[in-house]
Amino acid sequence: MFWVLLRREILGHLITFRFAITVITCLLLVATTLFIRINDYEQRLAGYNAARDVHRDELLATRTYSFLMPKIDRPPNPLSIFNAGMDSRIGNTLRTYYTHVPVLWDAHSHSSGNLFIDHFYRIDLVFVFQFVLSLLALLFAYDAIAGERESGTMRLTLSHPVRRGSILGAKYVAAMTCLILPLIISFIIALIWIISTGSIVLSGNDFLRIAGILLTSIIYLSAIYLIGLLISAWAHRTATALMLSLFIWVVLVLVYPSFSVSMVDQLTNPVGSRIYSSEKAIQQILQTVEDEGQKYLMNDGFEGESEHFNVRGNRNGLHVGLSHGSTAAHIKFRAYDWRAIHPESEKRIPLVIRYHQFLTPLKFQAAEKIGLERLPALEQTRFRRAKIARNLLRLSPAAMYNIATQAWTGTDLYGVEDFFEAARQYRRTLVNYFYDEDAFSSRQWFASDKGVIDVDDLPRFVYQRADLRTNTSRALPDLQILLLLNVALFLVTFAIFVRQEI
Amino acid sequence: MILHIVKRELYDHLSSLRFALTALLILILMIVNAVTSIGAYKQRMSQYGKRVRGSYNRLNTRCDNLYVLVQKGPGDLHKKPSSLAFCADGGEDLLFGRVNGGSASRTRDWRDEDASYEFREIWRLAYPPHLDIMFIAEQIPKERSIMPKYIKIDWGFVTAVLLSFMGILFTFDAISGEQERGTLRLMLSNSISRNTVICGKFLGAFFSIAIPFLIGVIVSLSIIYLSEAVQFNSSHWMRLGAIVCVALIYTSIFLFLGLLISSRFKESSVSLAILLLIWTVWVVLMPNALGSLGNRLQSRPTAKEFMTQARDSREDLQTRYFARIKEPPRREIPATIATALGAEYINKDAELRDRLHAGYLSAEIRQIQAARSLTRISPAAIVQYAFEGLAGTGLPRHLDFISQTRQYAKQFRQFLIDTDRADPASPHAVGIPEGTSQKPVNFDAVPKFEDQHRFRADFNAAIMDILLLVLFLLVLFVGTLLSFLRTEIG
């Protein structure tokens, strides 16, 4: 009996006009979206490759250790085609100074993309499914029970020896089959298009991630369908069910996500007193290092307080004294490159070496301290706001779907933060390299007159996106909530339907 | 007769569930928007006041010496927040609210065999406002960059999304529903023209949407008015009136769309499905998809290319002038050739940097404009832009602010030259200390920048959008009338 019901339901859905037109619209939108996003990805990839080559050449041209400040680049995420997330909104080029622990806001953008546009307009596959297919789910659901009750067919069906549970089950399975069909077609089109471009390389894990996105999409659509079914079982008239479910759809998909985030953005302050207090602490650390340096120069027995010890010759130098924005904090970064040193000054070189040998480790340590001060301050202000906003968003299944798929693609805040964590790791590698090479007690720290440094054995920065396991563990909480929502909705619908008099 | 139909329709709608739900939602959103925007506006205004005062104070400290004023410039120029931001937010938080009219004070060394001289940069206008050209890639205030994307809930959102949605819900079964029930046939058997039926249906639905919207508008305005956060003047009322009119025109577009589709299809469930799809695509997806195409249509130099170009052209300028300067500038009256050339160089350099920044900005703006023009296929985007224009927020207003700062920069430069002319002890080669008056300047005489909301500029920005909306309305109106005339009533 279940199969008969199921067949009837599926056929009933498939031959309807609304199904045909929604599927066609959905596929057209998917094609448009793919065109835009793949184009965008290829452009960003080209930008990344160009930037990486330039930065590698820059690194190879480095002459002294103190000039070693490799620029590292964040490759665009190929899965941003499915959910763009923050991939193109966050800076993707970062300079690693040994005197600075980098955070997200230190990065710049090497792309020619327009951040303003990226901020205002968003299109990706998840966005299309979130709107169009959820609408189809509701159109399937609103008259599923109320409609049959109105037309009297429900009574007819129940006169057969069939349990109410299997009626409900058949309806659910049939609708889900008809919803999954366009979803799978869309995914197949997307995969074929992506693979046929040749420029986008997906790894085996990426296919699993895409499967994760597919799974999340199915669970999301099922949740929306069940919301519609619940309303349909509860409402007495089809018209009421339709209005209620459309109203709830607009609120959940469009109004609430914007509403909650805008509330958080307006009601919480991005720069609180927390930032100011950390800024003060950072200033103090900076001052200590400066003082130590001055003290050393005063007590070293050499006349004059110049850090160049009156060495004469041909010098290149770089000063980066960055103190801009409320939480930027550099120790004054200084790089030196004496191309030639006057023979008379040769006897003062040991003094210079000793000075750097003393000061550079202090700078390393101070940078670490500043990092320890700065990261939590940002964590407790800016990151916290973003996280509060995300948590509030979880009240809407549509937003939860978006968050979960971002976790799969790795374009969410955590996924982007991974790059900066890797950058901080890399900075530590760089510092260790300096220690291993005994760089700051060597002449090549500040001078290249006796030969330039060899950076071939400097560990290169390689960025791997988080592994599948991490992605899964990040997506899992939202998936679980969505699943629980599904179960709860189904049970409530069942309870209402079973106790109902037809 | 038409009155009769309107009345019947109106009663029908007002007692329906869809009316109750949507009216409630609109009212809630309007009230919440009013309450939060009062706080936000107060905060923005106090921040603006603080920043402007800070700018003036810094300007005051530079007035001891005309050269210092020439070198450091007027400092940051701030944008005045719009008091009507509750109508259309326009992404104000994502735009830098200041233009920098200062200088990083970097120096350029001129060398000769036995002499050297340091040329110091003077002020220029820069937007994005960072002192250093290195940071030009930062287009958006950083602390906002990790928030999830969202649309501010303002009148623009309520109109673009909710009013159009209501429009569809109130009309999808207007004709197909009556056809299903057979009442349409009954009605047409009386001596009523079909146009009357359509107009009656339209007016009935129109009033039942306009009433909750206007109630929301009045409640929200009275909250803001009573809080005394915003002082409304006649220009504000004109803007608000225009905004409400635009909202109603926009709603009518969707009412006619609903009537059109409803008259084409016999089943109301089919017309609903089609309308919902059109709505989703037209209102939500199309602006996003087309807007994303903006960067493809117009290319723009990357920050890196821009920096290389800027460095090259500045070095080029430097070589040209340094080749002609034979001795270091001296303080002599009249100015020596070297002094005059040096001053000319410094001014040309500032002009060049001005121009580079402006060029970069205009390339970026072209992209945004391209995105906006494309999205104008969707009335939801048009209505947003029209609201922004009328409320004095968003991109047109921002461009007006930037052009105001440019006018001010000219005025400020002229003031410097005039003040220097008035000093007989100056060699009148403004730009380098040797050629410029060193006398203190009267702070009160220095022109101050104050950002003005110019209704005319704002209205001009909006007028095209309003006309486009009217065009959409007319097309759909005629289409609906024709389509209903040709409908066969079975």
| Rounded Rg of chain A | 31 Å
Order of helices and strands of chain B: HHHEEEEEHHHHHHHHHHHH
The whole-number mean of residue pLDDT values of chain B reads 87
Helix share, percent of chain B: 55-70%
Question: What would you call the quaternary organization?
Answer: heterodimer
Question: What structural class do helix, strand and pairing data of chain A support?
Answer: mainly alpha
Order of helical and strand elements of chain A: HHEEHHHHHHHHEEHHHH
Question: What is the total domain count of chain B?
Answer: 2
Largest interface by Cβ-Cβ < 8 Å:
A-B, 78 and 72 residues
For the largest sheet of chain A, list the strands in their spatial order. 1-2
Structure in a nutshell:
The complex is a heterodimer of chains A (502) and B (490). By secondary structure, chain A is mainly alpha-helical. Chain A has 14 helices and 4 strands.
Structure write-up:
- With 502 residues, chain A is mainly α.
- Chain A folds into two domains: 203 residues; 273 residues, no CATH class.
- In chain A, helix 8 packs parallel to helix 14.
- Chain B has two domains: 183 residues, no CATH class; 261 residues, no CATH class.
- In chain B, 66% of the residues lie in helices and 4% in strands.
- In chain B, helix 8 runs parallel beside helix 15 and helix 11 packs antiparallel against helix 12.
- Chains A and B meet through helix 2, helix 3, helix 4, helix 9 and helix 11 of A and helix 2, helix 4, helix 9, helix 10 and helix 12 of B.
Could you name the key traits of this structure?
heterodimer; A: 502 residues; 2 domains; two-stranded antiparallel sheet; B: mainly alpha; three-stranded antiparallel β-sheet; 15 helices
